[in-house]
Specification:
193 residues, alpha+beta, 7-stranded mixed sheet, two-stranded antiparallel sheet, 5 helices
Length: 193
């Protein structure tokens, strides 16, 4: 009788544990860039600078930014077709599921996301950055899995980059839009040999 009760409880408990939310790997942009294949397809939580402009959409760290000529981490919102706004001025409809390497990514739209997105689009036509913490799926293409970051073999504009698809913005530190990642990284790039 005790065995039957125990088996019954296990049958009920198993589906509960199977549906627990996946916990993100808390890491840094620099750690991801150092060993990208380890993080491929994983849910990560990192702090960094979201940069958006006419030709750029990135989530980066100025201390390990590779520069304009080298691919980095392209940012896209989950649940939408990109970081571009619709003609009405609002973020695109979340009903459009983003699927990368067979993984569907949905964006949690809340006040943190709205604040970051509003700041990123507050200076039309200019690259600006917003310091934030985000949970996202990170992807490299099979060609990039060995650490290669050749233009044309990745995601983003002209296949430039690794991909960071945001599921949730957990914190926005910036009070206003700041300089782009290109400007933020200049002091760090000047120190490199």
């Amino acid at each position: 009788m005790r065995i039957a009760i125990l088996l019954g409880l296990l049958a009920i408990a198993n589906p509960i544990f199977e549906h627990q939310a996946e916990q993100p790997i808390r890491t840094t942009i620099c750690a991801i860039k150092g060993t990208p294949s380890i993080f491929n397809g994983k849910l990560v939580e990192v702090s960094g600078y979201a940069t958006h402009g006419a030709d750029n959409s990135m989530f980066e760290d100025p201390t390990c930014f590779w520069g304009k000529e080298n691919p980095g981490i392209w940012m896209q919102y989950g649940g939408t077709t990109g970081t571009l706004r619709s003609k009405r001025g609002s973020a695109p409809d979340d009903a459009n599921l983003v699927v990368v390497q067979g993984t569907g990514i949905v964006l949690m739209r809340d006040s943190n996301f709205d604040r970051m997105d509003q700041l990123l689009h507050s200076v039309p036509g200019k690259d600006v950055s917003v310091k934030a913490t985000a949970r996202a799926r990170f992807f490299v293409t099979p060609e990039m899995a060995g650490g290669k970051h050749d233009i044309g073999k990745g995601y983003g504009k002209k296949g430039c980059c690794m991909l960071f698809v945001i599921e949730q913005v957990t914190y926005v530190e910036s009070q206003s839009a700041g300089p782009s990642i290109f400007e933020l990284a200049k002091p760090y790039n000047a120190k490199k040999p």
